[in-house]
Design goal:
Structural class: mainly beta
CATH class of one domain: Mainly Beta
Strand order of the largest sheet: 9-21-17-12-15-14
Helix content: under 10%
CATH topology of one domain: Immunoglobulin-like
CATH architecture of one domain: Sandwich
Length: 296
């Protein structure tokens, strides 16, 4: 019995060795670096590659600390204060009143309130003004504190074609010490807007008491009395009868006081400029001197 078992084991071992020897060999895979692998071949890209895990960085703070409070928003920048306004001169106190001719020299008349000033280029006026230039169309005044120039219209232009008539009206005899009235009257075919003028008198015989606008003008009257025996008058503005011509109308009314007896006291119209509604000068026939005898 034992012999039979050993023989069987021997036969089984031989059969196993023979089966191993008859198995086909495993195919060899060869991959060229210059060409892709053929079907059935294994690519090097399919090989599993172990990648090293990135290391954790250093901790950036206390993970369990209390977070800091957020920063307060920046306050908006304060707006720049507005630039101060540039200083300006006060309202112009002067106005053009006309021109006069004295001894062949033309001079300018400016009015300020109730005063009439006879000025020339370079004169310094009250209020910080200086007459910088005098032209045919305008007058330039320089406000000295600020160096600002201001201009006044002084339009002249050509003389009109129509001539106005001017005459004196007053008594032929007056009594020393008793005031009397002399009126300068005008007749013009054109409406008048302004009539600057100048009169002269003998300061040893006559003393001016008052000067006022006649009925022709409703506003804008100004005058100045000089110690040399002159009165500069600047009646101007709106006529009482706007748009109407002057027919023997009162232009200026003078009141004088005779100082002592004399054969004749004279009142002369030394300059007169009549201006029409458009500002154009109107020629006028100036009258001779007014004369009155002064009795005791």
């Amino acid at each position: 019995m034992r012999k039979r078992i050993l023989v069987a084991l021997l036969i089984a071992g031989v059969a196993a060795v023979a089966a191993v020897l008859w198995l086909p060999a495993a195919p060899t895979v060869s991959v060229s670096p210059d060409r892709p692998p053929q079907a059935g071949q294994v690519s090097s890209k399919d090989a599993l590659v172990w990648q090293e895990r990135a290391r954790l960085g250093e901790p950036r703070g206390n993970l369990f600390g209390v977070p800091a409070a957020p920063a307060a928003p920046a306050a908006p920048a304060a707006a720049a204060p507005p630039a101060p306004a540039a200083p300006t001169p006060p309202p112009m106190p002067y106005r053009f009143a006309g021109r006069v001719v004295r001894e062949g020299v033309s001079q300018l008349l400016l009015a300020k309130e109730n005063d009439v000033l006879q000025v020339k280029q370079g004169d310094t006026l009250e209020g910080g003004y200086r007459v910088e230039s005098i032209g045919a169309e305008e007058v330039t005044l320089l406000y000295l504190p600020l160096g600002v120039r201001q201009r006044l219209s002084a339009s002249g232009g050509a003389l009109g074609s129509r001539t106005a008539q001017v005459r004196w009206q007053g008594p032929e005899r007056v009594k020393a010490g008793e005031p009397f009235t002399v009126t300068l009257r005008v007749t013009s075919e054109e409406a008048l807007r302004a009539s600057p003028l100048e009169v002269s008198f003998d300061v040893e015989l006559l003393e001016p008491v008052s000067v006022r606008a006649g009925k022709l003008f409703a506003e804008g009257f100004a005058y100045r009395t000089g110690s040399d025996g002159t009165i500069v008058v600047g009646p101007s503005g709106r006529a009482r009868d706007a748009g109407h011509v002057a027919a023997d109308a009162e232009l200026v009314v003078f009141v004088f006081k005779p100082l002592r007896p004399a054969a004749a006291a004279e009142l002369k119209l030394t300059s007169l400029v009549l201006q029409g509604a458009a500002g154009k000068p109107i020629p006028a026939e100036q009258p001779g001197a007014y004369r009155a005898s002064i009795t005791p």
